[in-house]
Amino acid sequence: MWELLEKGGIVMIPIGFCSIVALAIIFERLWSLRQNQILPATLLRQVDDLLESNQLRHADESVRHNALQRAQALCRDSQSAFGNILWVVISHLGQRRPILKEMVEEAGRQEVNFMERYLGLLGTIASISPLLGLLGTVLGMMKIFTAIAEGGIGNPTALAGGIYEALITTVAGLVVAIPTLAMHRFLESKITHYVAELEQHAIRVVDHIKSGH
Predict the structure, then answer these.
(1) Distance between CA atoms of 40 and 186, rounded to whole angstroms?
(2) Who wins on pLDDT, 69 or 158?
(3) Are the beta carbons of 203 and 88 closer than 8 angstroms?
(4) How far apart are alpha carbons 211 and 93 in whole angstroms?
(5) pTM to 2 decimals?
(6) At CA 102, angle to CA 188 and CA 196, rounded to 5?
(7) What is the pLDDT of residues 113-150, one digit of tens each?
(8) Which of 213, 205, 212, 207 is nearest to 71 (CA)?
């Protein structure tokens, strides 16, 4: 492996750096976008139980206050995207439904920004890696043709070996770009799915509190 890196030339350095950064981003995003970090099933069940009890819109102020405290504790303990959005709902229950929905949408946009963190960089790596590989190949071919112009074809075996070395960077760039692009698309799809679910559950909570079943 080290021999291939040496033969690829200086362009292998940025390609290798891109591969390390891409791997770091992929593992970090997979960890951050776990179900429990975004939409934990336990919190959903607890919220459903709270809504079914009608305590958040109960006429008794003491019961309502206790329910609000319990809901806030659930949000705080979950440390999830849905918990953060639900916190906005609980903190502004007195607002009219259209205003409350706008607040929920704004909170949702902030969570989406967090979920999409580093994805732009990951997409950039997927785009530039094959270009870096092509650059390395072009530079290698230029060296080969310069040597041919100065000394003739000489040894065909050496020429074939030189072309092989020049193509190493193209292969390396594609090896980095293909899985990076695939993971970028996968993470984007995962985020889109989460956003739809977050919006659905958040609006359901707002509608339930404001209008009942």
Answers:
(1) 20
(2) 69
(3) no
(4) 12
(5) 0.80
(6) 30
(7) 999 999 999 999 999 999 999 998 888 888 777 777 76
(8) 205
